[in-house]
Design brief:
The structure is a homodimer of 304-residue chains.
Chain A: H1 2-10, H2 14-26, H3 31-39, E1 46-51, H4 55-64, E2 69-75, H5 93-96, E3 101-107, H6 115-128, E4 133-138, H7 143-150, E5 154-159, H8 165-169, H9 171-177, E6 180-183, H10 191-203, E7 215-217, H11 226-241, H12 246-271, H13 274-288, H14 294-302
Parallel strand pairs in A: 1-4, 1-5, 2-3, 2-4, 5-6, 6-7
Helix pairs in contact in A: 1-2, 1-3, 2-6, 4-11, 6-7
Chain lengths: 304, 304
């Protein structure tokens, strides 16, 4: 069955793509076999990641160039409520009518974690399906988002003028993951100041490669600066390929992917039986009522 | 040794507190025993979490009331570079000279993850050491941050006027974790609009408890609104204690803590030998060069 699915995916069948992504998101038992086949068919797409309110404009630009575009929107959601809350994707509606665009929201899977792992796998599926550009939209600068963004080829960080303190707050994200920096709403006051602040941050120079992230100014609602952004993304990608540490970077990403998979596999094995699941409920109640500490709780869970 | 350390912690010895936090952060082998002893001594502090640029003002306010304050600043950082980059804590300098204030930055530990786990444990240590107020400062609205914030008693979400789209983007964070909403820089234009947007979000009402999160306006640099904020935090805390779902909430937090510990313990056991670590390096290189897929790599890692 998987071999037929893989054939349909590589033929670009969107129903098959959607089904494959559901499999990896849901942690289906045959998803690992599927992903082994997917993996050897990846490596052609340009993967653009990062927090972005420009995804729809960039996607439209790539479409005009005749390229197929995949969009993965990562919705942070709570481990407690379970559901994805964000997803205010009205601006995506026009795009979603276009057969050359595949849009998918990924939400957290709950107790096994795995959002980052599932997102990276969804990207691989789109890559194997022949989407030339894959845009991974994340929100915020949390650990998951940073990991997802770093697994992309090029990461775009979007700021708006007048963020002031927030530029400082986002320093980590900007310095770590920003291959291309964008100041959107660049028709507003304060653009120059934000630009100076960014240049100040960049001049601290913690990057190990030679790439100097360009600062692109855009006005998304007027479609201004989008071509410059696409151009900056291409240049970042080219520079990266020839960077002296490109092999190290790929190894670090590979290592992280292996560990993510391992983490999830181990937890899934530890929790797979119904009795463990009942035990977990009981232990959680005991810890909540302070009848037990969480440390002895896991000792009981692990003990066979 | 741990029993002496626990005595020094409960006596409020800051050197012992710092050492204990380093132990849990570094995953020291005896940290689990220490935490078992800590756990039974927790439950007195008020833990305030969330993204906040008001932490220093709030801390100063609590100090004036004669309370001891612990501050944990969570620094997101990359799993690749390893270091904490943020930490622009100049505004904390005055506070740090005050013996009644304990300030600590927590950074990511790298391959085992565990930032959220270590942060929650650091909070427990400060609680056991008798700090009456514990402020956990996070950045962004990533999964880690949401989990950390939800493990706090009261979560404060800070916005500034004119965020426009960003209020939408932060919807998840606001709706999920905000027990108290703050509009800082409330002397700027656009306060009313931001307030209306927040009220609009709140009126959608996804909360399961009866608490209606208040919107507090502050001007941090002029110290305005801080008392109102502290008051709103107290009210949120009181409401929570009597909420019909308070037991469920505590169980969900307990369950999450157990799973975090379990996840880390399993990974640590799987990777603990030198040979596994060498194997991981080799497999990461093979995956990076597409000589192997990550799925068969973990099968080799797990196989004994």
């Amino acid at each position: 069955m998987s071999s037929r699915l893989i054939d349909r995916i590589t033929a670009g069948d969107t129903t098959a793509v959607a089904r494959a992504i559901s499999k990896v998101e849901g942690g289906a038992s045959d998803s690992s076999d599927l992903m082994k086949q997917i993996f050897s068919r990846t490596g052609r797409a340009l993967i653009v990641g990062g927090k972005s309110s420009l995804v729809d404009k960039l996607a439209a630009f790539y479409r005009k160039q005749g390229e197929r575009v995949g969009i993965i929107a990562v919705d942070p959601s709570s481990p407690f409520s379970g559901g994805a809350i964000l997803g205010d994707r009205i601006r995506m509606q026009t795009l979603s009518l276009d057969k050359g665009v595949f849009i998918r929201s990924m939400a957290t899977r709950g107790q096994l974690g795995g959002l980052a792992r599932a997102t990276v796998e969804a990207v691989a599926i789109l890559d194997a399906a022949g989407y030339e550009k894959i845009l991974v939209e994340t929100v915020g600068v949390g650990q998951d988002e940073i990991e997802i963004a770093k697994a992309a080829d090029v990461c775009v960080v979007v700021l708006v003028p007048g963020m002031g303190d927030d530029v400082q707050t986002m320093k980590a994200g900007i310095m770590e993951i920003g291959d291309v920096l964008v100041i959107n709403k660049a028709d507003r006051d304060g653009v120059l100041r934000t630009e100076k602040e960014l240049e100040g941050l960049l001049s601290l120079g913690v990057r190990t490669d030679q790439w100097q992230p360009p600062i692109v100014k855009t006005v998304a609602i007027e479609n201004r600066g989008i071509e410059e952004l696409a151009d900056a993304i291409d240049r970042a990608r080219e520079s990266q390929k020839s960077a002296p540490d490109s092999n190290e970077r790929r190894q670090a990403i590979a290592r992280w992917r292996i560990l993510e998979l391992l983490r999830e596999r181990l937890l899934s094995e530890a929790l797979h039986s119904d009795s463990t699941s009942e035990k977990l409920d009981r232990l959680a109640a005991e810890v909540a009522n302070k009848k037990r500490d969480p440390y002895s709780a896991i000792e009981e869970l692990i003990a066979k």
